[in-house]
């Protein structure tokens, strides 16, 4: 499959839940008076995981009331068969039943539930959406790659630095990786985070003095699909390097790939389980702490040090390393290969870590459309 971009584009919160990949937790239910505000739900059914947040508006951000995260491996075997397997769909239905009970428990009326790359690619993806509705009552929609990229971008708006003139947002998923390059040079520095939020309506041309999407791309390689093609790299540095270069080859159609970009005023924000796991490993966290990870700035040398450590551990060492987590150890090297490629290509030696993504973007978009955020709707 080839990377995609929209037609007509140029060619050149308050803390959310702590989590470990593959596990799920929910925060204690708030007192009754905290439930008086309208609740919103956002669910992301990806290639590897099923994740949901239930939140309420709080000022210009939101407060998480409940959450869910479960590794379902929906895309297992998809590369070979082109279809979602019966076993993976069964695991996913079980997870979605838990989500349905949480939505019902909290009386959530405003919700958006979406599926991404695995369901976009699978020949039986739409049949599975109908099965979900029959068996759980939940209406899950398969969204286009552009909307997935847009939601990831707006979730990262609070992390945009005032001095940033060129921004690259990277979302490394299970089945695909989205990259969005945004020119903020015409935006007043203090308004740059809000300018990113205003992209919730689309990547089309904005008004004068607003953010401009230079280009975006959806590469059909994520941590699960890249692993399916290469298997576990064990401790083979040469095979790991080949996997990283293979991913880079898929960036050739992305216009900023070959363009000279200034180092000053450039920021990369990375959002994914890979990025947050690398950050947690760098910090030596044996128990994940979102407050320490979200917003952390890492240098390329620090990222390379962690990746070399992963390689030296080998499969068994990665499996037992508490910083990685048992449900991510088989995917961390493919994710690290993608991350290393991105840091090699663009003119920066720093990466801003974002523990946020599609679910947060869905919540921001719903709340913004309803005008319930303190800053009002971002039109």
Task: Please explain how this structure is put together.
The two termini are 34 Å apart. A hairpin with a 4-residue loop joins strand 6 and strand 7. This protein has 13 helices and 11 strands. The strands form 2 sheets. Strands 8-7-6-9-11-10 form a 6-stranded mixed sheet, sandwiched between helices. Strands 3-2-1-4-5 form a 5-stranded mixed sheet, sandwiched between helices. With 379 residues, the chain is α/β, with parallel strands linked by helices. Helix 9 (273-283) crosses helix 11 (300-320). The chain is globular. Residues 1-36 have low confidence and may be disordered. The protein folds into 2 domains: 32-144 and 359-370, 2-Layer Sandwich (Nucleotidyltransferase, domain 5), CATH 3.30.420; 147-357, Exopolyphosphatase. Domain 2 (Nucleotidyltransferase, domain 5, 2-Layer Sandwich), CATH 3.30.420.
Share in β-strands: 15-25%
Strands side by side in the biggest sheet: 8-7-6-9-11-10
Cα distance, first to last residue? 34 Å
Order of helices and strands: EEEHHEHHEHEEHEHHEHHEHHEH
- What is the total domain count? 2
Largest sheet: 6 strands, mixed
From the alpha carbons, calculate the radius of gyration and give it in angstroms: 20 Å
| Tally of strands | 11
User: Based on CA inertia axes, which overall geometry fits?
Assistant: globular
What would the CATH topology of the largest domain be? Nucleotidyltransferase, domain 5
CATH-defined architecture of the largest domain: 2-Layer Sandwich
Low-confidence stretches: 1-36
Q: What is the CATH level 1 assignment of the largest domain? A: Alpha Beta
Summing up helix and strand content along with how strands pair, one would put the structural category as alpha/beta
Helix content: 25-40%
**Given the structure, what is the number of helices?**
13
CATH superfamily of the largest domain: Exopolyphosphatase. Domain 2
